[in-house]
Fold this protein.
Amino acid sequence: MILAAIHLMAIWSLIAPSFAANEPKYPFLRDASNYTITSEYDYIVVGGGTAGCPLAATLSQNFRVLLLERGGVPYGNENITRLERFETNLNDNSGPYRPAERFVSEDGVVNARARVLGGGSCLNAGFYSRASPKYVRSVGWDGELVNQSYPWVERVVAFAPELQQFQRAVRDGLLEVGVTPYNGQTYDHILGTKIGGSIFDNDGNRHTAADLLGYSNPDTITVLLYATAQYIVLRSEGNRPRAYGIVYKDSQGVEHTANLKSVEGSEVILSAGALGTPQLLMLSGIGPAAHLKSLNIPVRLDLPGVGEGMSDNPMNYFVIPSPQPVETSLIKVVGITPFGSFVECGSGGSDGLLLQKVIGPLSNGNLLLRSRDPLALPIVRFNYFAVQADLDRCVQGMRTIEKVVLSRSFAAFRFDNQSLPSGGRVTGGGRNAICDCQINGVAPDSCTSYCAANRAALERYCRQTVSTIWHYHGGAQVGRVVDAQYKVMGADALRVVDGSTFNFSPGTNPQATVMMLGRYMGVKILRERSR
């Protein structure tokens, strides 16, 4: 599985692992090692990522906000900002502040954690697609505010992509094999095939969550770069711990403390992501008591749900050498199937790539601290395909990919001797190992055993080639760690606003919804304070 993920990233590098120091784009950016805190804050947001940037920008409209980011800025680094530089990004492992921090889960799958202002939106393939109305209702969000918050994000970072030859062939192939209807270009999550949005514009420039800081009030926000949170300052009031501030270290290893104002409503808000948020809670003494005690961390709040429910949408891909050159492209088209698999594609040089990823997923694992060192990556297990339904969806998704490859629409981009995930081959007559006995000329009395062998082959393929597409979530879920208002249960002046709160990943790709959530919760908090 490690080799599978490395192979994918070598062909289609969605990671941007280098940072170059440049003049900041905003006047409120400061290097933490050159900045002395002289005031207290209404809100301290930990994590300048996909949720943290829109959240801090929104809160700064009425309040004094400190945003702590452990990495640098994306601006001026073409490895991040230019679409054609994604391959360079993968191979750059220089420096302690490279934006993509690699790790390997206990499942053996190579993964990455963002370490840059803008978070995962600086590392991903750029696809922008909203959550479905059903998802919004299921998590209890205010639909009207959601529909106001998405456009706030989209005015800055979302673009309607133009399709070239390979992406058009996949779109047409999906429609030909029944992933219908065609929904055109839309940000909405609708069954069928669509062209989504992208945070890359049509000149190949990446736009990130860091751009949403342009909405900030520059007089009331401070963003500290290279500021690594160590722990939350907690004091007990009765039986409940209350957040008072954050201890962080700068790039020189010097420790600093940022404090909240002593007024009702001031809060520490964690937006450090699905790895960083549960890690910081545990380092602060909030989490499963037995685990904390095993590392000699004083228990401030026994909260067993911290670190639980860690999920990563399993992704499986198929590389197709092309008889003709293909454009360099990341995800633009998606087939949203009724059985819970999303089919997408990318291309470059002489290779195309089709992938499927599983909705949800239902399988999940957990996260534990490796040590008391905040720089030590936590131990995480996602338990890919532990639930049979996830595996069933992968099998159906891979069958759909095979059908697309065999479609008339895709004919110009395949070789006849191309092998297929199920074990068959493309041939001049289009016969393969797809489980359709009529197409393949299999006698009716042999159909059951034929399909069983086909399914077994695809199950093996799914398990052996499982990779990540960096949609992991959980660890501080609603109902387990935070309540419906994202306040940490059993604590005061402490919230979580990021993907660690998700029980299921929203839509085909979560970044649009994570950015929306930052804006959404910022507005909700402003409304609370105005009452």
Notes: The longest helix spans residues 511-530.
